[in-house]
Amino acid sequence: MPGNLIDTPAHRFAPGADALARALAADLPADVVRPDAPVTAISRRTAGGLEVRTPSSVLCAEDVVVAVPPALALARIDFGSQMSPGLARLARTTPVWMGTVAKVVARYPAPFWRDAGLAGAAVSRTGPLRELHDMSGPGGRPAALFGFAPAQAVGPDFEQAVTAQLTRLFGPAAAQPETLHIQNWSGEPWTAPPTVHHLTDYFLFGHPLYRQPALEGGLHWAATETATQYAGHIEGALAAAERAVTAALTTKETNPCSR
Questions:
Q1: 52, 121, 168, 259: least buried by Cβ within 10 Å?
Q2: What is the pLDDT of residues 121-130, one digit of tens each?
Q3: Fold of the domain spanning 101-187
Q4: What is the mean pLDDT of the chain?
Q5: Does pLDDT of 161 surpass 90?
Q6: Are 118 and 170 in contact (CB under 8 A)?
Q7: CA quadruple 175, 176, 181, 187: dihedral positive or negative?
Q8: Handedness of CA 143, 122, 173, 126 (dihedral sign)
């Protein structure tokens, strides 16, 4: 069948997606971003507002936006008994997008598959990589192919199985990548909760409860898993963030942390 049937036109970040976060952070006042201060507890204050605890500090906020997967938030953050049982149950059971996946990037000296008229995209069930795409930069530099594999497939012979599959799909030039990067998301403690492999109900993405601020209106969900469209993708994350920020900006309470 002619053409590339699995890739659709899309915009990409030439320097990497983290460039967006870094650029936004650069415009914030000094010491506002605290990457080494994981939140351990969030609770409603009797005087108003929310109390946010980290290992080294206690903060007060009028609104809190939770931008990590809900299941990870429930596994890492103590909400006490203030979160409704229905919402807590929903958050604990919502899957983490790509949480059970390993991402593999194979870098090459040049995008040789393009010279052969290949798109660099494939769907496969005869190797560890189930879905593959061309990940090359502008003009084909740097040249790279990437694919997704089930996290359980990562083992002692994983790299050999990957290169063998790439060779079958794209020819002998694929047999020796310059580098082979493997990122197993299921093993990242700040990405996936311990229960990640048991969370399979993807119909929970974008559940209506995520669009309702919790803890008496002060807690807002902004993870991509909570988006009603494009859940799991950057578009979903941006839409969920816009929803959460809009809700926070319309909060009626004023300066609760001064009390």
A1: 259
A2: 999 999 999 9
A3: Polyamine Oxidase; Chain A, domain 2 (3.90.660)
A4: 92
A5: yes
A6: yes
A7: positive
A8: positive
What does the domain layout of the chain look like in residue ranges? 35-97+191-258, 101-187
Radius of gyration of the chain (CA): 21
Q: Is 66 exposed, middle or buried (0-12, 13-18, 19+ CB in 10 A)?
A: buried
AA letter at 246: T
Integer CA distances (angstroms), 191 to 15, 93, 98, 227, 254, in order:
22, 15, 9, 17, 33
The predicted pLDDT at position 237 comes to 95
The end-to-end CA distance of the chain, in Å, is 68
Type of residue found at 229: Q
> CB 77: neighbour CB atoms within 10 A?
17
Q: Are 121 and 4 in contact (CB under 8 A)?
A: yes
Please state, in angstroms and rounded to a whole number, the distance separating the CA atoms of residues 196 and 25: 29
CA neighbor of 194 nearest in space, from 101, 71, 103, 66: 71
Residue ranges with strand state E in 109-203: 122-123, 131-134, 143-150, 179-184
**What is the band of 3 on the pLDDT scale with cuts at 50, 70, 90?**
low
Rounded Cα distance between 214 and 207, Å, is: 14
Helix (H, G, I), strand (E, B) or coil at 198: helix
Q: Are 146 and 179 in contact (CB under 8 A)?
A: no
Q: What kind of fold does domain 35-97+191-258 have according to CATH? A: FAD/NAD(P)-binding domain (3.50.50)
Question: Up-side HSE of residue 97: CA atoms within 13 Å toward CB?
Answer: 18
pLDDT beyond 60 at 236? yes
